[in-house]
Design a protein that fits this description.
This protein has 201 residues and is mainly α. The chain has helices at residues 2-12, 14-26, 32-44, 50-75, 77-91, 95-108, 111-116, 127-132, 137-162, 168-200. Helices cover 81% and strands 0% of the residues. It is globular and about 55 Å long. The N and C termini lie far apart (56 Å). The chain crosses the membrane at residues 12-30, 50-71, 140-160, 172-193.
Amino acid sequence: MKEWILQIMTSLNYVGIGLLMFLENLFPPIPSELIMPLAGFTISQKQMEFFPAIFAGVLGTMLGALPWYYVGKLVGEENIKRLADKYGKWITISRKDIEKADQWFHKHGEKAVFFGRLVPGVRTLISLPAGISNMKLIPFLIYSTIGTTIWVSLLTFAGYKLGEHYELVDEYLAPVSKIVAAILVVALIIWIVRKRTRNQM
């Protein structure tokens, strides 16, 4: 996987970043945790510029998010789950993955699209429940773009700082993503408690 990503990025430059991030959103096994840190390493070697690389990553991600959004909008939740049961193994998406993203969306509302872009395992599929719930396109694009820009920038900067050890980003991100998810859960609980307290007053 790493060699394939490297080959595309070195041969296509910024277009390669955009293409890889587009594919990463369509096929979750392609990891942004390797793509953008590699771009950061390339920047540290003076072969790319920081902001154009981030722009390419964000653009590719947003273009890749739209197909899932419209699949959710046009196909519907139960049909998608049935398709995942039947064909999901080919793109490594299961009914459980869809349900997880759906739970995120219903817990956090439209802001789930923003938060979801920052959590591996959720970020790619969060577009599905947004479409299923008929979230309006403009808010979807705004929340997605903001979350994606933060995510892509952090990964790129980490790769830039780590240099040739950029692969450590992928290695260390798993526990960090769990911490982020835990923080979001705690924040949600606090928000619910405060809301109930205000309603009882």
